[in-house]
Amino acid sequence: MTRPGHYLHSSHWGTFLARYRDGRLEVAPFPEDPNPNRLIENLTDALRHPARVAAPMVRRGWLENGPGPDSRRGGDKFVELTWDEALDLLAKELERIRQSHGPQAIFGGSYGWSSAGRFHHAQSQVHRFLNTTLGGYVKSVNTYSAGASSVILPHVMADGDLVSRRGITWNKIVAHTDLLLAFGGISPKNYQVSSGGISHHTERDDMRKAAERGCRFVLFSPQRNELPPESGFEWVPTNPASDTAAMLAMAYTLVRENLHDADFIARYCDGWEVFRQYLLGESDGVPKSPEWAQPLTGISAAKLGELARSAVGKRVAVVASHSLQRSVYGEQPIWMAAVLAALLGQHGLPGGGFAYALGSIAHYGRRIAVAPPGSLPQGANGVRDFIPVARIADMLLKPGQTYPYNGEDRRYPHIKLAYWAGGNPFHHHQDLKRLSRAFQQLDTFVVHETAWTATARHADFVLPATMSLERNDIGGSATEPLIIAMRAVAPAHGQARNDFDIFADLARRISDDAWEAFTEKRSERQWLELVYEQSRSKLEAMGEPAPAFDEFWEAGYVRTPATPDTGGVMAAFREDPEGHPLGTPSGKIQLSCEKIASFGYADCPGHPAWLPPTFGPDERHPLWLIANQPADKLHSQLDFGAFSQSKKRKGRAVFTMHPHAAAQRGIREGDCVRVFNDVGACLAVASLSADMLEHVTQLSTGAWYNPVVDDQGRHFCAHGNPNVLTRDVGTSSLAQGCAGQLSAVQVERYDGDLPPITCFDPPPGT
Predict the structure, then answer these.
(1) What's the CATH architecture for 57-144+372-480+488-555?
(2) What are the contacts of 207-210 at 24+ separation with CB within 8 A?
(3) How far is residue 615's CA from residue 729's CA, in Å, rounded to a whole number?
(4) Are 737 and 440 in contact (CB under 8 A)?
(5) 2.40.40.20, 3.90.640.10, 3.90.45.10, 3.30.565.10: which CATH number matches 623-749?
(6) For 476, how many CA atoms within 13 A lie in the half-sphere containing its CB?
(7) What's the first-to-final CA gap in the chain, in angstroms?
């Protein structure tokens, strides 16, 4: 299991072995992992990298002028303070905000991907601190990854977690599935990652086994590389933002030729007649036929018809990736995929039905562990207000303005202070110039960070946090068979401290009662024992090996069995729809939904629909841009790491385009290019590939934001962050999710002097 001198450790991209000696970190794959993730190589030079935050820093403008909006945020100098000086100042500011404006003026930021540890989970730590010491905070709901699906799915089928994490498993696909329709793909880079850690990467082998048994994999995507070759997949090139039209055309063929499962629809579905009339064109005069869909999708009418007919009488899994709903009207392909599976009568069958986001992260398609580790309780939030997570800039720029969300008219709160720990919105968010202006509106911005991200550069207080290898923790998740003792491997960098210790000292400065409420008088060790005990006691009750904490800590791990693979909520519903109804208005699958229709949203009607994109390629910006997740890092984490740096060219992100589109613009392999539209511009290095549609380009997210101005006065990101190009708009009035997956751009060769990459250097004055 381990090597001499190495400790087992956990990360979101995999379990691994680590040893720190002579000032250097050594890492090795977990021996049991059949397909280990090379992202562990990003750690080797990260612990002592110059990008690390080494001491408490306070922005000079905040020290000189006090709290308040400031356009210098993002470009100001910082002043090093001692921990006592920084925490004394911050405690006073928190008390000022609480007394003058109340906790409803505090936004508790963060995002859950900072560490695989369950105790030193930055999001839980910051939320617990705000709840127990200040009375609460304005929170965000949903995620950038699944902002649209998490709102639409409970209306029409079931909670998104039940559909994805507790739905169709790879075990059942290997054994039963005849046809897997992958809309948006099942990308190898995505299923290598799992929140809370992953010890065994098995998806590639699972797809190989299913294909060897005879399962047919069909990929609908603008790019060929969205399924692994082991699946033997068939690529159906598909125009961006057109998946709903393709599914409608397949559904039309099934209904028009009387191939749909009418008995399943009658017993398990609601809203059939409204959807049927729309599908056949009786309600709007437009039959959604394959001929109608051909110019929209780029897929021939004959192919769409053949795919529909080939699914009849087969065990079919309909997969819709996260990427489909990260665009305007992103709710529609998710709803329509569930409807297509219903027309085929597949929901609840082993290996059949709707597998939302299967493979989008490694959680999905796995069996649930019987005794996953616990987590840090966050306490009760005394503030009821919230925003959809992708509307952060709107909240800061439009305080008091109303906006629609999930049938409500909500109002943006007036936030004075944002407290962030464990996240980098300059990776997740869109229109980064606008986001920068938004953070400049705050009175005070506080960030715990390991490194000088763009978010840290916009903060007033930057408090240095440890990396997971520099602290003790427990790793594990609901779908992970191992609980990992994450022992500290290396000493903390500079003056870095873990979030728990920072918040404990800050709470003591507020009051003794606040300190006691936050810590419950427990040390780190006692909290770790409590987190582990939640697993140990369950294992013991089931008669499974349940070592005491000291034994577990010494061994480095304990195994937890998986629950039976029963098919989850959809199998129970299929077996007994009256006894196990869904949480929808009718208790059934909603082919149309009167509740959604009652909201009156033109951008999300009461049935799945084709809504023409509000933007797209035109004469000025004739190319689609796909801004997907990177393969060389998780989000933007450790972009300065060795593996991530090895994948850059000329120190910049790689921009992929079709050779024909490149030739039309005089662009060759390896040229530096300027990618631009009306939102912004960035530099990247061109890579040519014929494995994509000619009018499609691709630039992964994750490059740290590096804004510059050239000698012509043009603003752009020198490093290649595509979110300078993406529009900051919601998916629809229903979900207000992230719509950053697709943009329209133009590209030209950049022949000027290349500006240096400075985003990994500490800011001036540090």
Answers:
(1) 3-Layer(aba) Sandwich (3.40)
(2) 207/231, 209/174, 210/173, 210/174, 210/177, 210/180
(3) 12
(4) no
(5) 2.40.40.20
(6) 28
(7) 43
**To which residue do tokens 């008219």 refer?**
409
> Consecutive 10-residue runs of the chain (766 residues): their mean pLDDT?
78 96 94 96 95 98 98 97 98 98 95 87 96 98 95 92 84 98 96 91 97 98 97 98 98 98 98 98 98 98 98 98 97 98 98 94 89 92 97 98 98 98 94 98 98 98 98 94 96 98 98 98 97 96 96 96 92 97 97 98 98 92 97 96 97 98 98 98 98 98 95 90 98 98 98 95 82
Residues found in the chain: 766
Integer Cα distance of 92 and 523 in angstroms: 25
Q: Tell the burial category of 382 from Cβ atoms under 10 Å away from its Cβ (0-12, 13-18, 19+).
A: middle
Is 601 considered catalytic here?
no
Q: Which residues contact 295 (CB under 8 A, 6 or more apart)?
A: none
What are the helix (H) ranges across 640-698?
642-646, 659-664
Judge whether 270 and 590 are in contact, CB under 8 Å.
yes
Residues 735, 430: contact at Cβ < 8 Å? no
Extended beta strands in 96-214, E state: 106-108, 139-141, 179-183
Work out the angle at residue 1's Cα, subtended by the Cα atoms of residues 634 and 39, and round it to the nearest 5 degrees: 15
Would you tell me how many other CB atoms lie within 10 Å of the CB of residue 146?
Answer: 25
Burial class (CB in 10 A: 0-12, 13-18, 19+), 22: exposed
- Distance, in Å, from the CA atom of 263 to the CA atom of 280, rounded to the nearest integer, reads 19
Residue 386 identity (one-letter amino acid):
F
| Contact criterion met (CB below 8 Å) for 196 and 476 | yes
Q: Which residues pair with 444 in a beta bridge?
A: 417
Backbone angles phi, psi at 446, to 5 degrees: -115, 135
What pLDDT does 87 receive? 98
- Domain boundaries, given as residue ranges, for the chain: 57-144+372-480+488-555, 149-360+570-599, 623-749
β-sheet bridge partners, residue 95: none
8 A C-beta contact, residue 57 and residue 81 = yes
Report pLDDT for 766. Answer: 64
Structure tokens at 523: 């040390």
Residue 561: partners with Cβ closer than 8 Å, 6 or more residues away:
369, 370, 371, 481, 542, 544
Give the closest residue to 417 by CA, choosing from 436, 396, 400.
396
Contact 620, 746 (CB under 8 A): yes
Rounded to an integer, what distance in angstroms lies between the CA atom of residue 224 and that of residue 220? 9
Q: Could you say which of 7, 20, 113, 170 is catalytic?
A: 113
- Known active-site residue 235: no
pLDDT of residue 158: 87
> Partners of 717 in the beta sheet?
682, 707
For 305-327, letters b (16+ CB in 10 Å) and e give: bebbebbbeebbbbbbbbbbbbb
Given the residues 7, 62, 111, 532, select the one marked as catalytic: 111
Which CATH code, of 3.40.50.1780, 3.40.228.10, 3.30.70.2740, 3.30.930.10, is assigned to 149-360+570-599?
A: 3.40.228.10
Contacts of 161 (CB under 8 A, 6+ apart): none
124 near 499, Cβ under 8 Å?
Answer: no
pTM above 0.85, yes or no: yes
- Cβ 307 vs Cβ 246: under 8 Å: no
Q: How far apart are CA 103 and CA 189, in angstroms?
A: 40
Beta bridge partners of 638: none
Tokens of 80: 């090093």
Separation CA 147–CA 317 (nearest Å): 23
